[in-house]
Amino acid sequence: MQVELRRVELSVNGSPHALEVEPRTSLADLLRHGLGYTGTHVGCEQGACGACTVLVDGVAVRACLMLAPQADGTEVETVESLADDGELHPLQESFRRHHGLQCGFCTPGILMATLAAARADESLDQVLERVLPGHLCRCTGYVNVRAAIREAWDELAEARARPRREGQPDLGPWR
Amino acid sequence: MKPAPFRYEVPATLEVALELLAEHGEEAAVLAGGQSLVPLLNSRELRPGLVIDINRIRGLDSVEIGPDHARIGALARAGELERHRELADALPILREALGYVAVPQVRARTTIGGSVAHADPAAELPAVIAALDGEIELASKEGGRTLHWREFFRAPHAPDRRPDELIVAVRLARRLGLGFAFTEVGRRRSAPALVGACTGLARNDGAVETARITVAAMRSGPLRLEVAERALLGRAPDEEALAALGRQVVAELAPHADGLDAAAYRTGVAATLVCRDVRALWEEAGRAG
């Protein structure tokens, strides 16, 4: 079938992008193949595994279940927004310290969903009991993931309370 | 997997959407939150020629709370409904049930209209709609119609919606005078329900005045268990009454569970959930009043 391409304009981690895609392209594939943000991982393409979770206008969503044209005009944040010039975000640093990942496939989704919850002033309990179950990790058994989130949580909450500099996004880039 | 190719339209108004459905409804799929549709596209279980994305239609996500009804626009998202204060005051059962819908990352996109259109017998929102005498508002170029939930959810994954029709809102009854509870059992909290139950009860002194038992995740549904409801009336739900209720729930559900995996387990769990909720609602009503 010959299908008309759609123009999509969006911001990814603060940088504007415009490209033409087939309407059936997922937001995840637009990010990975169209723009090279390969930190967003694609697992099940069914919304079950959570590996592709990114923030769209600040809200954590499955990038495999959004068509790329639906992201037209939105601000997307991916895991690439976290580290600052090679220096890990405190949440990433906590995952490193606690061995909260092994293969790392699920990690970008978990980091982004946790960050969104912290910004939205959710409780740590909500993150561990409601948000984290939206992410399949087959390496860690979640024990270290939970430890990493727990330890970083206070720091995330503190950053939320801290007044932001002009133009600096909420909780990231971190410093 | 990736979806098969499709044409894509993003109508800016309801009129244009209905025009598109009138002309292409037979080959079209309506995209709302995409949390049920896009997995079906990705697995190529559905291969529509045209996807009509209704997300840019303004006002389709409005929530209006009237004296007797709440009217929820089809595009209202589960995550927003969960945080909607007035709605939580008007219909606390809705928020309780929404907590069982997948995970917050999915609820951020899930819409009530999409859930209704998908008509999954295991879904939470249709069960609440059934418990609250819900009605589904459909629009088309020919005019609108409003269907009682029982007419609308006529078969699993095949509700009564013509190809030229769009689901525009759901109406839920308020002030039914019952207390409600929603409970669900699945492999994990975020996994699809093996059994879901929405139970309602009104107490008058020492007796049950009204009862309402709705069960999800059988072969079809949502299901109202009217024989079980009647069996509760006019007396207190003591141990004996609850044991009889449990047996009745199993008996009434058995034909609807037939052929499902773990059918006997599901009906047994349904009985346990309903009895537990009846007891809790009875005690709560006693304390309140």
Task: Give your account of this protein's structure.
The complex is a heterodimer of chains A (175) and B (289). Chain A has five helices and five strands; from the N terminus they run ββαβββαααα. With 175 residues, chain A is α+β, with helices and mostly antiparallel strands. Chain A folds into two domains: 75 residues, Beta-grasp domain (Ubiquitin-like (UB roll), Roll), CATH 3.10.20.30; 72 residues, Orthogonal Bundle (DNA polymerase, domain 1). In chain A, helix 2 runs antiparallel to helix 5, helix 3 crosses helix 4 and helix 3 runs parallel beside helix 5. The longest helix of chain A is centred in the last third of the chain and has 19 residues. Chain A is globular, with a radius of gyration of 16 Å. The N and C termini of chain A lie far apart (49 Å). Chain B is of the alpha+beta class. Chain B folds into three domains: 47 residues, Uridine Diphospho-n-acetylenolpyruvylglucosamine Reductase, domain 2 (2-Layer Sandwich); 111 residues, Uridine Diphospho-n-acetylenolpyruvylglucosamine Reductase, domain 3 (2-Layer Sandwich); 110 residues, 2-Layer Sandwich (Enolase-like, domain 1). Chain B is 38% helix and 24% strand.
